């Protein structure tokens, strides 16, 4: 052999004249079997493997038609003739055979007239995969980039946080009777008609687009109390965010999905109409419990969807005698469960993500007769000043599939600078919960042994850890205190005290005492211990002292989990009457009593009294409420506050 490849000419068996060159010395054909670039692309992808045979009677086609009709019904205008013509798939990919559906006439209420909008197709991108959503975001949404670790960096637009003042609930007869209204309540009223105006506005906007994203997903890992949600949105960012944050159905669960229990219409940047009754800005987030719907206009901040659904759970679950909680949750190797309550930024995600324990969830849970269950399928971590050393699990979760909101990165390598606050201080990462290596799947656990209330006290007067009696736990749970620093500019600023009932006043729907009574009952029944942990300042207020080291807080929390803190020696603090340990392993004893850490003793006492006064004033609104079956608990709770 001279080394030349031996080439044979073959005739196609069908008599075609195509020539194929076969090389003996090479394993495969060096030229591609495509005539055009489109043909080449068509070879690139094989269809997703069939979802397997299914025991139900429906054929694949019937199921598909039903699914399209259900989506068309969701998107239907309530005033025009039919639901929109729905076609699945990206409008840019014209080679796909369109499968069209629209809601049959008889299923829709008042017939008015055919309009141009009924003649157009609405393309639906249904439960796309993260890879497909990345492509959509990068092609069509400004501000979308892949970071150096593979996350999808996005911008949420003008709003980089939630807008509680623009969140409204329809006050019909049932809602008026059942929900908490008035001072302190997060439920700002609107009437049904105005809701319908906004709903129609959102639906019209969504149908006017080339395409919309639809997610069908679940809430709550407790299968008996699982809620089916549909999210219709205009952006791939929103679809990927919810893909990560809600529970992802398996292919067969998706086939059986049927009609959702609740639907979100997220029109994102499209504003509400200021001439609509009740509207006070161009942003409106509206919930109708009767219609089982939520409408979002004029904000693209994705947290509105997450927390809107959380509000819904705060209504639905107590009806089933299940307590909904704004808390993180993890479990030790021995099955000991801890809940972490706290307002935004106090450490729920940071402290529930713990290398030595199983993560059940970082933000929203249910406590039922069977134990605890996570409501969500993902985590939503703050990433300002995130570091690999201090929070390794969160750091490592920021990879392909994760949505990174409003972060800043360098233009070439796309390395994120987590210290950069140029867009906002509220930078966030949303990732599926299984990105945390020691996740507990399914995300459920037994009854909690410890209930940890987190406060980031920028006044620096609350002890780093204290053990609470049941009535103290209730007092602090109803108070829902934290104090963060006022601004982000240089210079000393007064800390800003915030009180948010049940550590989540923005999300509760019933009166806080309803949730408090349920918590007291459950803690008593299952023998859980309450703790107050200050993740904020030590050694003085903001400006003088400094934030307590995360490593110290972790040691204190370790001692709670292990049970060793129960056996410590305690002394009682003045005014707040908190039981504080005199020694905890791995933590300098002198910081356990905040009075020791203040150089200015008068300043300490003054600040302590000031904070106690703020607690007292805040609690006045609750003094007239009866908690539990008799009034005893109310009296005890009142007595568990600061005394001075
Ligand atoms: N001692 C400490 N304990 C806890 N967190 C600390 C401490 N010191 C600094 N931090 C920082 O505080 C932030 C706590 O935010 P985290 O995401 O845990 O809030 P969250 O309670 O989950 O809020 P949200 O409900 O808004 O998600 C993190 O950025 C963390 O790094
Ligand atoms: O809702 C958000 O934007 C983040 C969050 O978890 C909270 O504020 O409690
Ligand atoms: Ca969090
Ligand atoms: Mn939260």
UniProtKB/TrEMBL annotation:
Transmembrane in keyword set: no
EC class (word): lyase
The reaction(s) this protein catalyses: oxaloacetate + ATP = phosphoenolpyruvate + ADP + CO2
Subcellular location: Cytoplasm
Assigned EC number: 4.1.1.49
GO CC terms in record: cytosol
One GO molecular-function entry: ATP binding
Region Disordered, residue ranges: 1-67
Keywords (A to Z) from UniProt: ATP-binding, Cytoplasm, Decarboxylase, Gluconeogenesis, Lyase, Nucleotide-binding
Pfam families named among the record's database cross-references: PEPCK_ATP
Entries under InterPro entries matching the protein: PEP_carboxykinase_ATP, PEP_carboxykinase_C, PEP_carboxykinase_N, PEPCK_ATP_CS
Basic and acidic residues composition-biased segments: 8-24
Domain of life of the native organism: Eukaryota
Pathway(s) the chain acts in: Carbohydrate biosynthesis; gluconeogenesis
GO biological process: gluconeogenesis
Family: Belongs to the phosphoenolpyruvate carboxykinase (ATP) family.
Protein name per the record: phosphoenolpyruvate carboxykinase (ATP)
Source species of the chain: Clitoria ternatea
């Amino acid at each position: 052999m001279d080394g030349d490849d031996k080439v044979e000419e073959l005739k196609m068996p069908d008599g075609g004249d195509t020539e194929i060159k076969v090389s003996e010395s090479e394993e495969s054909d060096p030229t591609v079997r495509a005539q055009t670039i489109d043909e080449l692309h068509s070879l690139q992808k094989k269809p997703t493997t069939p979802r397997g045979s299914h025991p139900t009677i429906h054929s694949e086609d019937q199921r598909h038609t039903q699914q399209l009709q259900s989506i068309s019904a969701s998107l239907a205008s309530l005033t025009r003739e039919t639901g929109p013509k729905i076609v699945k798939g990206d409008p840019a990919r014209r080679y796909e055979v369109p499968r069209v559906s629209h809601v049959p006439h008889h299923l829709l209420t008042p017939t008015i007239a055919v309009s141009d909008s009924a003649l157009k197709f609405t393309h639906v991108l249904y439960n796309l995969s993260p890879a497909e959503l990345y492509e959509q975001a990068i092609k069509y949404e400004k501000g979308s980039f892949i970071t150096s670790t593979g996350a999808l960096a996005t911008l949420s637009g003008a709003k980089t946080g939630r807008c509680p003042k623009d969140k409204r609930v329809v006050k019909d007869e049932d809602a008026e009777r059942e929900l908490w209204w008035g001072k302190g309540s997060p439920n700002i009223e609107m009437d049904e008609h105005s809701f319908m105006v906004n709903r129609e506005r959102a639906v019209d906007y969504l149908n006017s687009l080339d395409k919309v994203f639809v997610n069908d997903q679940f809430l709550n890992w407790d299968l008996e109390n699982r809620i089916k949600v549909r999210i219709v949105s205009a952006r791939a960012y929103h679809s990927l965010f919810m893909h990560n944050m809600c529970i992802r159905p398996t292919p067969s669960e998706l086939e059986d999905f049927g009609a959702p229990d609740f639907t979100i219409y997220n029109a994102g940047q499209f504003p509400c109409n200021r001439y609509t009754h009740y509207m006070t800005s161009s942003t409106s987030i509206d919930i109708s419990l009767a219609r089982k719907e939520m409408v979002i206009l004029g904000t693209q901040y994705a947290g509105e969807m997450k927390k809107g659904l959380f509000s819904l759970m705060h209504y639905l679950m107590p009806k089933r005698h299940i307590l909904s909680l704004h808390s993180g949750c993890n479990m030790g190797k021995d099955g000991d469960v801890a809940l972490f309550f706290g307002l935004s930024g106090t450490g729920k995600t940071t402290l529930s993500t713990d290398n030595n324990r199983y993560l059940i969830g970082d933000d929203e849970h249910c406590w039922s007769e069977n134990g605890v269950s996570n409501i969500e399928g993902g985590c939503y971590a703050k990433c300002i000043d995130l570091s690999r050393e201090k929070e390794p699990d969160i750091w490592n979760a920021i990879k392909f599939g994760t949505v990174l909101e409003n972060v800043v990165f360098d233009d070439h390598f796309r390395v994120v600078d987590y210290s950069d606050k140029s867009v906002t201080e509220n930078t966030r990462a949303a990732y599926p919960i299984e990105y945390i290596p020691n996740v507990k799947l399914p995300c459920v656990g037994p009854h909690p042994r410890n209930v940890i209330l987190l406060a980031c006290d920028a006044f620096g007067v609350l002890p780093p850890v204290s053990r609470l009696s049941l009535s103290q736990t209730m007092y602090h749970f109803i108070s829902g205190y934290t104090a963060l620093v006022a601004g982000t500019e240089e210079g000393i600023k007064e800390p800003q005290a915030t009180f948010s009932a049940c550590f989540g006043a923005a999300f509760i729907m019933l009166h806080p005492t309803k949730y408090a009574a349920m918590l007291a009952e459950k803690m008593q029944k299952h023998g859980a211990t309450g703790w107050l942990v200050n993740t904020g300042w030590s050694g003085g207020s903001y400006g003088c002292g400094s934030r307590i080291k995360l490593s110290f807080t972790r040691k204190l929390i370790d001692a709670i989990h292990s049970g060793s803190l129960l056996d410590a020696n305690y002394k009682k603090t003045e005014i707040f009457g908190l039981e504080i340990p005199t020694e905890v392993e791995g933590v300098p004893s002198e910081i356990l009593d905040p009075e020791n850490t203040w150089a200015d003793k008068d300043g300490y006492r003054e600040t302590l009294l000031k904070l106690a006064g703020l607690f007292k004033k805040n609690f006045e609104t609750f003094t007239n409420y009866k908690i539990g079956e008799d009034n005893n608990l109310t009296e005890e709770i009142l007595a568990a506050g600061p005394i001075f």
